[in-house]
Amino acid sequence: MSYTFWILLTASLVGLSCGIIGVFLILRKTAMMADAISHTVLLGIVLAYIVTKEVSGMAMLIGGILAGIATAFLVQSLHSLQVQHDAAMGIVFTTLFAIGVILISTSVGNAHLDVQHALMGEITFIPFHTITLPLIGDIPQATALLLFVLVVVIVSIIAFYKEWKLTSFDPALAASLGIPVLFMHYLFMGLVSVTTVASFDAVGAIMVVAMLITPAASAYLWTDKLIIMIILSGGFGVVSSIVGYYVAAWIDTSISGSMAFTTGVVFLISFIFSPKHGLIAKRLKPVGQM
Amino acid sequence: MGEIILQVDNLSASYRKTTVLNNVNFKIRKGSLTGIIGPNGAGKSTLLKTILNLHPALTGSVRFFNQPFQQAKKRIGYVPQRGSVDWDFPTDALDVVTMGLYGKIGWLKRPNRKHKQLAYEALEKMGMADYANRQISQLSGGQQQRVFLARALVQDADFYFMDEPLAGVDAATERAIMNILKELKANGKTVMVVHHDLQTVEDYFDHVLLLNKTLLCHGRTEEIFTKENIAKTYGGNMRWMGENREYAVHSVE
What we know:
The complex is a heterodimer.
Chain A: H1 3-27, H2 31-52, H3 57-80, H4 85-108, H5 115-120, E1 130-133, E2 137-140, H6 141-159, H7 161-169, H8 171-176, H9 181-220, H10 226-251, H11 255-273, H12 279-289
Antiparallel strand pairs in A: 1-2
Helix pairs in contact in A: 1-2, 1-6, 1-9, 1-10, 2-3, 2-4, 2-9, 3-4, 3-9, 6-9, 9-10, 9-11, 10-11
Chain B: E1 4-15, E2 18-29, E3 33-37, H1 44-51, E4 59-64, H2 69-72, E5 76-79, H3 93-99, H4 102-105, H5 113-125, H6 141-155, E6 159-163, H7 171-186, E7 190-194, H8 201-204, E8 207-212, E9 214-220, H9 221-224, H10 227-234, H11 238-252
Parallel strand pairs in B: 3-7, 3-8, 5-6, 6-7
Antiparallel strand pairs in B: 1-2, 1-4, 8-9
Helix pairs in contact in B: 3-5, 3-6, 5-6, 6-7
C-alpha cells in the first residue's frame, strides 16, 4: 500500500484514540495530566530501551504505562502531602522528563531515540519500519501499535463507560456506591499513557497533548450527550489529522505541527459557530428571547 | 424509638493541618430525622464525609447497623452538596438519577429499561418527570437539588445522609424535599441532614445534633434546641440568634 496511505492511516489512528480518551480528560478536569504524562512516558520508553536494548512496541508500551501511572501516583502523593495540585504536577513531570533526557544522552545514544524526535515525532519515517502480521501482511510498526491501542481504548471505554462517567461527574457518590474511584483514576491514567506512547512515534510528546485535549474541548461545545461527545471528538481528531497532513504537504511544513494547528482551527470554528455554546449563539440568544 | 443503627465513637478529622472535628461521639436510632446544625466551618460536611469514609478520620470508629462501613455501604445513600459537581457535564436529569443505581447494576453491565423506569419514577416523585431529558445545566438550582434527591431515592437505601439539600432552593422545592424526608421517615428510613436555617429546625427535625468542631449536644429537638445550647454552639452571636427565634415564633402564630 502507498506511502501516503500509511501516513494518513497512522495519523487518523492517533486522532481517533486521542480524541476518545481526551473526552474523559476534559470532563475529569485533568487536561494537563495529558501534558505531564506525554512528557514522562519518555522516561518509560528510555528505561524500556535500556532494559531490552531494542525499540520494540510492547516494551515501550509497558515502560510508558509504568511511567504514566508513576506520574499520576506521585502527583497524587505530593498533593496529599499538602503540595498544590498544579505545582505537584509541574514538579513531577519536569523532573521525570529531565531524567529521561539525561538518560538519552548518557546511556542510549541511539538514532531511534533523541529528544527532538521525542518532542516533535516524525511521521514521515513511519512507513519505513514495517513488521509482518498474520492476515494483514506488512504494516508499519507504529501503525500496528496504534491499531492495538485503539482496540484497547475502545474496549476499556465500553467496559468501564458508566464507572468513568460517574467518577468524572460525582466522585463522592461513586465512592459511596462502592466504585473504587482511585483505582478507576489510575486505570484511566494507564490508558492515557498507552495512547501517548503509541502516538509518540507519529506526532511526538507536545503534539499528542494537542490531539488529546483540543478535539475533546471542541466536541464539548457541540453536544450535551456524553456518547455523542466521544464520537464527535474522535471524528474531529481524524479530520484534523487528515486535513493537517494535506496542509503540511501543501505548504511543505512539519506534519505533526500542521495537525496540531488544525485541531486549534477546529476548536476556533466550534467556539464561534457551535449552536449551543458558540459565541454567535450566545450573542443571538438574548435577542431571540426578547 | 428503634434500635441504634449508627454509632460514632471518638471521631476526629482534619483538613491540612487544622483539626476540624474533635472527639465526636453519638448514636443514631432507626427512624429518626436528624438535623446537623452549626455555624460555618463547624465541620458539618466534614462530619458526614468522615462518617462515610470519603474523608480520612484521624481517630475513632464508625459502625453502621453494627457493621463496619464497607459491609453496610449498600444500605447507605449520600446526597452531596449541589455545588460539588459540574452541572455543565454532558448528561440529562434521567441519566443523573440512573447513576444512583450504578452500584446495583454492577460491573460491565449497562442500565436497562427497568433501571431507567425506576429512575423515571423517582423523578416523577420529585415532580421532575417533565424534565427527564433536560440537559442538567438548564435546570434551576431547586430542580438540580430535586434531581439529586431523586437519585438518592432510587438507591432505596435504609440510611440517608444529605449535605445542605435545602441550601439556595425555592420554596416549592423546599416543601417537596421536606415531604420526601417525612415520607422516608414514615417508611422507617433514617435520615441525617446538614441544615443551616435555624428558623425551620423545630418544624423539620425530630432530633438535632449541634456541632462546632466538636459535638455540643445531641438529642430530641424539643429538649436540645434551646436558646442556651444554640448560644453555646454559635458562640458570640447570641443576640442575633435570639431575634431570629422570636421572629420564627411570630410567623408560626
